[in-house]
Design goal:
The chain has helices at residues 5-28, 31-134, 142-172. It has 174 residues and is mostly helical. The longest helix is centred in the middle third of the chain and has 104 residues, at 31-134.
Length: 174
């Protein structure tokens, strides 16, 4: 403590001056600018740390992900096989029903087509012959005879081919 009042006043005055200077210095301080400056200094350091951590963890996480993918692939494959096994009889039965439903229609169409084919083959084969009969009094013309023979051979081949297809279908049980 000061012994003398003038010394105490002087001490108080000095403290007030120091306090004023401190307040003035604090008023001049820009905390935002300091924070930005500090952030600018720390940013490259933090980025480098993050990149190092990424480089460290990337192989580990990649390996884990690949292991999980392999595990899930096995599980999903097993589930798919199980589902196929469950649905195969259902699908087979539906297919049998659809075949049974469509067989009469297809058979009728095939018979109609076959009958048309027979008629057209017969007509094609007999056309030259009918033409030749119509010109029986005339001298046979070699191209007309050749065309008639070719027509007969073609008709014979078509009929033979259809018969073979029919026999093959019978053997296969259709």
């Amino acid at each position: 403590m000061a012994k003398d009042p003038s010394e105490a006043r002087e001490n108080i005055e000095r403290t007030r001056r120091e306090l004023g200077e401190t307040v003035a210095a604090l008023a001049q301080l820009d905390l935002r600018a300091q924070a930005r400056r500090k952030a600018g200094e720390l940013r490259p350091v933090l980025i480098a740390r993050a990149q190092a951590k990424i480089a460290e963890l990337k192989p580990v996480l990649t390996a884990r992900a690949q292991a999980k993918i392999a595990e899930l692939k096995l599980v999903l494959t097993a589930r798919a096989r199980q589902k196929v096994a469950e649905l195969a009889p259902v699908v087979a039965e539906r297919a049998r029903q659809k075949v049974a439903e469509l067989r009469p229609i297809a058979t009728a169409k095939a018979k109609t087509t076959l009958e048309r084919g027979r008629r057209s083959a017969t007509d094609a084969a007999l056309r030259p012959v009918r033409g030749a009969i119509g010109t029986a009094g005339e001298k046979p013309k070699p191209p007309a005879v050749a065309a008639g023979v070719a027509g007969l051979v073609l008709a014979w081949l078509l009929v033979r081919r259809r018969r073979r297809k029919r026999q093959a279908r019978k053997r296969l049980g259709r």
